[in-house]
C-alpha cells in the first residue's frame, strides 16, 4: 500500500511572554493510504499543534525546531507556500477542534459550503446548492435547506461540527485531519459521526488522522495509534 503521511522526528515550540513551551518533541508516524490513524493524548499534549503543523497553519509565535513532514512522498517543509495552499482543501482537509470558531461568523453556512464546491468545480450555482444540501443531509443534519440559511452562532456545536465535516469531505480529500470531531457531542451522535468517517474511508479510500483524547473512539476506529505525552511520542498497533 502507498504511503500517505510520514512524520519524522518533528519538534515544535511556542514562544510566549512567560517563556517557551515545547509542544512537540520528536514525533514520528507513518500512515498508509486508506488507513485511519488515531493520535491520542491528554489536554495540552500537543495534538492540535501536530494537526496545524501538517496543514502548514502553525501560528506566528511557533518554530519548528526540527523534523520532516512528507505527504505522498513530498517534503512539505521544503515545498513552497503555493504548493501547501494547493494541498489544503484539495488533497488534505481538516475539521478543526472548535468548529463554530472555524466557520465564517458573518456568512450563512450554506454559502460557505457552496463556495467550497464552486471553487473546486465548474458546477452551476444551482447544482452547487443542491450538492450542498445533499452533503448536509449525508452528515445527518435534519432539514438541510433551513440549516443552509443559518449563521454559525445560531447552530449548536454539534451542528457546526457536521457542517465543517461536510465542508472538509465535499472535496473528497486524500487525507482528512479531524481534531476531536466528536468532542462535546452526546454518545449517540459520536457513534454516528464515527460511522460516517468509517464510510468515507471505505468509499473514497481516504486516510483519516483522527485526533482524540477518548480511548473508546480509538478502540472503535483505529488500526494504528500514536500517543503524545508531554510533547513526547509513543506509537504502536492497537
Ligand atoms: N498559539 C499558542 N501559543 C502559545 N502556546 C501554545 C499555542 N498553542 C498551543 N500552545 C501550547 O502548546 C501545548 C500543546 O497545545 P495543543 O493545543 O497542541 O494541545 P492539545 O493536545 O491539542 O490539547 P487539547 O486536547 O486540550 O486540545 C500546550 O502547552 C499549549 O499551551
Ligand atoms: Ni487540541
UniProtKB/TrEMBL annotation:
<dbReference type="GO" id="GO:0015413">
    <property type="term" value="F:ABC-type nickel transporter activity"/>
</dbReference>
<keyword id="KW-0547">Nucleotide-binding</keyword>
<keyword id="KW-1278">Translocase</keyword>
<dbReference type="InterPro" id="IPR027417">
    <property type="entry name" value="P-loop_NTPase"/>
</dbReference>
<dbReference type="GO" id="GO:0016887">
    <property type="term" value="F:ATP hydrolysis activity"/>
</dbReference>
<keyword id="KW-1003">Cell membrane</keyword>
<comment type="subunit">
    <text>The complex is composed of two ATP-binding proteins (NikD and NikE), two transmembrane proteins (NikB and NikC) and a solute-binding protein (NikA).</text>
</comment>
<dbReference type="Pfam" id="PF00005">
    <property type="entry name" value="ABC_tran"/>
</dbReference>
<protein>
    <recommendedName>
        <fullName>Nickel import system ATP-binding protein NikD</fullName>
        <ecNumber>7.2.2.11</ecNumber>
    </recommendedName>
</protein>
<feature type="domain" description="ABC transporter">
    <location>
        <begin position="5"/>
        <end position="238"/>
    </location>
</feature>
<keyword id="KW-0472">Membrane</keyword>
<keyword id="KW-0067">ATP-binding</keyword>
<dbReference type="GO" id="GO:0005886">
    <property type="term" value="C:plasma membrane"/>
</dbReference>
<dbReference type="InterPro" id="IPR050388">
    <property type="entry name" value="ABC_Ni/Peptide_Import"/>
</dbReference>
<dbReference type="GO" id="GO:0005524">
    <property type="term" value="F:ATP binding"/>
</dbReference>
<dbReference type="InterPro" id="IPR003593">
    <property type="entry name" value="AAA+_ATPase"/>
</dbReference>
<keyword id="KW-0813">Transport</keyword>
<dbReference type="InterPro" id="IPR017871">
    <property type="entry name" value="ABC_transporter-like_CS"/>
</dbReference>
<dbReference type="InterPro" id="IPR003439">
    <property type="entry name" value="ABC_transporter-like_ATP-bd"/>
</dbReference>
<keyword id="KW-0406">Ion transport</keyword>
Amino acid at each position: 500500500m502507498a504511503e500517505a503521511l510520514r512524520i519524522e522526528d518533528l519538534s515544535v515550540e511556542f514562544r510566549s511572554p512567560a517563556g517557551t513551551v515545547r509542544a512537540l518533541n520528536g514525533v514520528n508516524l507513518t500512515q498508509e493510504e486508506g488507513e485511519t490513524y488515531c493520535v491520542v493524548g491528554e489536554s495540552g499534549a500537543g495534538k492540535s499543534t501536530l494537526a496545524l503543523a501538517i496543514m502548514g497553519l502553525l501560528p506566528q509565535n511557533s518554530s519548528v525546531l526540527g523534523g520532516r513532514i512528507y505527504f505522498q512522498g513530498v517534503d512539505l517543509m521544503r515545498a513552497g507556500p503555493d504548493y501547501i495552499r494547493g494541498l489544503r482543501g484539495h488533497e488534505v482537509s481538516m475539521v478543526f477542534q472548535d468548529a463554530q470558531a472555524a466557520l465564517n461568523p458573518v456568512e450563512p453556512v450554506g454559502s460557505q459550503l457552496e463556495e467550497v464546491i464552486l471553487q473546486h468545480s465548474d458546477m452551476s450555482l444551482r447544482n452547487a446548492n443542491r450538492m450542498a444540501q445533499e452533503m448536509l443531509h449525508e452528515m445527518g443534519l435534519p432539514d438541510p435547506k433551513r440549516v443552509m440559511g443559518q449563521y454559525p452562532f445560531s447552530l449548536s456545536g454539534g451542528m457546526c461540527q457536521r457542517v465543517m465535516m461536510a465542508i472538509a469531505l465535499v472535496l473528497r480529500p486524500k487525507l482528512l485531519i479531524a481534531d476531536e470531531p466528536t468532542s462535546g457531542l452526546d454518545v449517540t451522535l459520536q457513534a454516528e459521526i464515527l460511522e460516517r468517517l468509517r464510510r468515507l474511508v471505505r468509499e473514497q479510500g481516504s486516510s483519516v488522522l483522527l485526533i482524540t483524547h477518548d480511548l473508546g473512539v480509538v478502540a472503535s476506529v483505529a488500526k494504528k495509534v500514536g500517543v503524545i505525552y508531554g510533547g513526547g511520542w509513543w506509537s504502536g498497533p492497537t
